[in-house]
Structure formats: C-alpha cells, structure tokens
Structure prediction request, 352 residues.
Amino acid sequence: MAEKAGKTNKIGGYKPVQELGHGAMGNLWLCHDPSMDRMVVVKQMQDDLEQNEGNVRRFLQEAYILAHLNHPAIIAPHALWKEKDGKYSISMEFVHGKTLREILDKCPTPPLWVVLNVIYEVLSALGHAHRSGIVHRDLKPSNIMIDKDGRVRLLDFGIAHNDNAIKLMKDDSTDLRITGENVILGTVTYMSPEQTVGAEATASSDLFAVGIIASEMLLGENVFRGTNFRDTAQRIQRLRVTRKAFPKDKVPPELAKLVVKLLSKKPKDRPLTANDAAEKLSSLMKELPRDLSPYMGMWLSAVKHSEDGNISEEDYSTPPLYQDSQALSLLKGFGLGALFAAIAFAIVTYIM
Prediction:
C-alpha cells in the first residue's frame, strides 16, 4: 500500500510525495520534479544492496535497458545517478492509471475488444524489446498498466535479460547476465515450463506468459495457479489448455487457436516471434478502429467507478465498428438460406 513520504526529504533533485511500494531491488517513490514541474517515479536501491556488485549490476542494467528502448508502450527513464551514500536511483516516467491486475481483480472477464487490444499492445512492445535482445522474464498483470488515456503500458524490466547490455556498459569485462541456468527468477504463476525448472528464459518464455495472461482475461481465472510454488509449477508443466476451454460464443476460434499456441509446452511450438503473434492477432481486429485508446480510457473509467466491476455497454462507449463486426459475424453464422427466408417472411408479413 502506498504511504506518504516520511523521513526521506529528497532523492536526487526530486521531492518525495508518496512511497508506492517495495521491490526486491529497491523502493518506489512518487516524486515531484521541481525543475520541470512534473511527477516522476523514482526507484531507489535498498540500503543493503550496494555492497553486492551483482545487485548493483542488475539495478544498473534496468536503467540501461529502458534507455535503449523506444516504444510508446514501454516506460521511459529520465535519469540515473549515485547518491553520496553509494545507493543508485533511477527516475522514470510516471504513469497515472491502473494495473491490469487491479482491473482483473474487479472485472475478471473484460470485453473481447479490450482483451484483443491489451494483448496486441503487449506483443507489440515485446516485439520491440526482443529485437533489441531483451527478454522481460517477469510478465504478469501487475506489470501491465492501462493509463488514464487508455494506453497500454509495459512496466518493470528489473529482472530483464539483455544479451547486448554488456556492450552498453562502460565496463565490458563483467558478465551482466547476473543469473544463469538453474536460478529461477520471475513470478511462478506466469512462468513458462522451462523457467519453472531453472532453464534460462528466452523470448519464447515471454510469449508463454502472454498466453497465460490472455487465457486469464478470457476465462476469468489463471488456470495454472496452484496452492504453492511446486503445485503451480507442476500445473504449468503438465496442464494442457485446449481450444475447448474457450466458449465458442464468446471467443473467436482463431483467437482460441492463437492462445493455445502461445501456451505450447515446447518453445519451438509457440509463435516464432512476438511480432508474428501480434500479426495474427491484428487479423482479428480488422473491424476495430486503429486507435482504441479513447474507448479503453472510457471503459477503464467505468470499471473504476463501478462498485463490483459489473458494467454494461451503457456505462461506456464501445468501439463503433466492433458493433458492426458483431452483426456481420451473426449474419455469417445465420446462413444465407435462412437469411433469405427471413427476409422473404418479413416482406410477406409487411404486404399482408
């Protein structure tokens, strides 16, 4: 839970306003930047971490990774500095909105167009990161945010792995992988099968996590979630999600097919790249407006203001072409013969 700033009076050139939370590598603060009169988020290294070179390297790597990614869905860093006490801090863009975790806790099964848009934007951001040799390794709903303007944002590259990071650092003699095989990093409920046994995460591992998130949004629950780490890991390794798990009247067959492919146990059976998966998803979004953020913003506002997360289309504006595509799909399923018969019946009834 966020807390008001206490004894900390200044972090770098920023004025702490509220402590947002604690992480494995540092504390998050909402701060005011007086030089630009804006709000920023500052990640400050924890007191006991600066003594460990590996922890320092991992902290610095997140800053370098963010600095070399340029994508509208990825948080932008502002500055990296070292305090007099030896602690490092990173200031970055402040995103005002709700995490996907907060949204799903209130509205477990969002409208189909919301699912399509969120997953597409995440895949697009991952495609950009993967092309730069960066694997996120900790994709989960709490690391995805929808801002107040309806834009999907990807957060927390704190344990990301970058094959090229060593070239970005001044000291290229140190291995920046930090962890190798047999070391498990990430959140088990959104891990790939290979990650649960300690194998090194790859871009394909990120795609499996996207599959879990997509299935959770479509089914209303994470079917891999167990009672503990071992139980969850075993479910991820053994439980196979098939197309039959997705209701045909709510989930288009092609979407179910893509999600099942993302959830393939073997990396080689998943989509080749995040961009390939995004391209397949885009074919299901042809009837939707190109920019869904205004509608996402209105839907998010409706969710935030609802008491129990149960909202109807009367509470927000749905994408107009989405309504047309529903009608088109209905006609396709109706059949031409039945359609003509219905039209003929209507004409006869009108004449009589």
Observations:
- The first strand starts at residue 3 and ends at 4.
- Residues 165-185, 324-352 have pLDDT under 50 and may be disordered.
- The chain has two domains: 3-93, 97-297.
